[in-house]
Amino acid sequence: MLFLGFAYSICLLTTPAEIEEQVTALSYGHKGEFDYLAYLHASYLFDDIPLETNLETNESPVSPPSTPKYPSEIINAFDMTFTYRFVPDKPVTKISEQVEVKAVLDKPEVGPEEVILVPTTDLTGDFTVSFFMNASDLASSPTTTIKANVYTTVETDTGPVFESFTQSLAIQSKGPLLEVSRDLTNTQRASFG
Questions:
Q1: 59-106 per-position pLDDT tens digit
Q2: pLDDT reported for residue 92
Q3: Residue 65 sits in a domain of what CATH number?
Q4: Which residues, other chains included, contact 25 with Cβ-Cβ below 8 Å and sequence gap of 6+?
Q5: Exposed, middle or buried: residue 58 (CB in 10 Å: 0-12, 13-18, 19+)?
Q6: Which segments in the chain show pLDDT lower than 50?
Q7: In the list 19, 40, 141, 170, which could disulfide-bond 181, CB 3.0-4.6 Å?
């Protein structure tokens, strides 16, 4: 018994202590941006004129100071884009994405109606997809939520990383006005490993 106790204490003294350290293999960010132009109905005064900011500047869309409101009677359509960037903290082997953009129109009399604006599409790297919404469709729904769903696969030295990112944009019909949410950009940080 004494011999077993002595042998056990020798094992404890000679066994190296294990130190466990968490190492992050990859830190990254998802960045999504909606942007849009509101087009007026063609008229003898204005023809077909988009309501837009200065095209000379090549800047990212900036959230306006208040919720933009557009009279639904004179707006024909919204020409919209969604831009996505995957921003890793170190180089990666390959980035591929799948994106789908859909609108959910809240129809109180029949329930929500889902409309596919951009069908599931395979892309690589940073991308921009374009889509279109009729103002009359938006005016017929108290709330329309546009959702961009991105599924990203990143190949790294330590293996693949599978990520998802969703960004939403709400458009509300309030009487004769269409109100577009100010939240045009979304950034989400994450890490792997």
A1: 555 555 678 888 888 899 999 999 999 999 888 889 999 999 999 999
A2: 87
A3: 2.60.40
A4: 156, 157, 158, 191, 192, 193
A5: exposed
A6: 53-54
A7: 170
* 18 within domain boundaries: no
Is-above-0.85 flag for pTM? no
139 SS3 class: helix
Whether 44 is in a domain gets the answer: yes
Helix (H) or strand (E) holding 145: strand 143-156
* Helix or strand (DSSP H, E) at 4: helix 2-14
- Residue 109 maps to a domain: yes
Among residues 72, 133, 73, 71, the alpha carbon closest in space to that of 105 is found at 133
- Quote the number of domains for the chain: 1
* Helical H segments across 26-171, by residue range: 135-139
